[in-house]
Design goal:
Low-confidence stretches: none
Distance between the termini: 15 Å
CATH topology: TIM Barrel
Number of helices: 11
Number of domains: 1
Helix content: 40-55%
Radius of gyration: 17 Å
Shape: globular
Order of helices and strands: EHEEHEHEEHEHEHEHHEHHEH
CATH superfamily: Divalent-metal-dependent TIM barrel enzymes
Largest sheet: 9 strands, parallel
CATH architecture: Alpha-Beta Barrel
Mean pLDDT: 97
Number of strands: 11
Structural class: alpha/beta
Strand content: 15-25%
Length: 275
């Protein structure tokens, strides 16, 4: 059985218009043991101007690792969401994210199938995803990095759908990054049963709570949401989630996905008490 550790996705500083290094310091100040950066290709105006938290994979990953070391915090993984159905984007993006994560000290690269092309069929999409995941997994195996496939988008919004993507490529590098909020909102499979079903393949978890108002408006109508409310303020039973995740074969970081610093603080306080 694994331990449950607390982390924070860097989305918690998005609405505050703050850069990556500010978010690292704030996450450590709150008390989180881990953080999950979002990486991108090339140069992005807002992050270069220090108004946004994402990190360019053109930047030195060891700079990011040293920054975390300075604040006594580690990376649980990197958020490298890219459309698996579009290999012209996702193959090189994921391969670079894997290499970057390895140097940065992040053991997991998280992704999902992403929005599909408008003109492709389901069979075509599964062929394209197989190509993407095979290419990425060969690199991940060499670097000792796990690829966490998340329930988010058209095919992975059910237990059977997520399984069908996971089963495309047989590789020890491929696992599941379970998203508690996305799975709940999809409304296709009980979120606790679904977590129990994937526990043996779990490599990372997005701890996303859903407010009662969002649940009433969107459950069964969407395949996911960028961030949730503070953990403990919404519909998710976190004690139950923790008890299920403890059955994972390795330690699992609950990477909180919320949209503000106050939500990050309340999430930390709520989850810490349960742990």
């Amino acid at each position: 059985m694994g331990k449950i550790l607390l982390g924070i996705n860097m989305e918690f500083v998005r609405s505050h218009d703050k850069p990556f290094d500010w978010g690292v310091a704030k996450a450590a100040e709150i008390g989180y043991q881990y953080l999950e950066p979002m990486v991108h290709w090339g140069r992005e105006l807002l992050s270069e101007a220090r108004y946004f938290h994402s990190v360019s994979m053109f930047d030195d990953p060891r700079w990011a690792r040293d920054l975390c070391d300075k604040h006594n915090i580690k990376m649980s993984g990197v958020s490298a969401h890219t459309p698996l159905c579009k290999p012209e984007i996702s193959v090189e993006y994921l391969k670079q994210a894997i290499r970057w994560a390895s140097d940065a000290g992040a053991p997991v690269v998280n992704t999902d199938e992403g929005p599909k092309p408008e003109w492709t069929t389901r069979d075509m999409d599964y062929t394209l995803m197989t190509y993407t995941l095979k290419e990425a997994s060969m690199v991940a195996e060499r670097y000792g990095i796990k690829i966490g496939i998340e329930p988010h988008q058209q095919y992975s919004k059910s237990q059977e759908g997520l399984d069908s993507i996971y089963d495309l490529v047989k590789s020890p590098a491929i696992g599941i990054n379970y998203d508690t909020g996305n799975s709940y909102l999809a409304g296709t499979t009980d979120t606790y049963d679904w977590l129990s079903h994937v526990t043996s393949r779990l490599v990372h978890l997005h701890a996303k709570d859903i407010s009662f108002s969002q649940s009433g408006e969107e459950k069964g109508k969407v395949s996911g949401t960028p961030v949730g409310c503070a953990c403990g303020d919404g519909v998710v039973d976190w004690k139950r989630m923790i008890e299920i995740a403890k059955n994972a074969p390795t330690d699992i970081v609950f990477s909180v996905e919320c949209g503000t610093v106050p939500d990050a603080i309340r999430s930390f306080e709520h989850l810490s008490k349960l742990l």
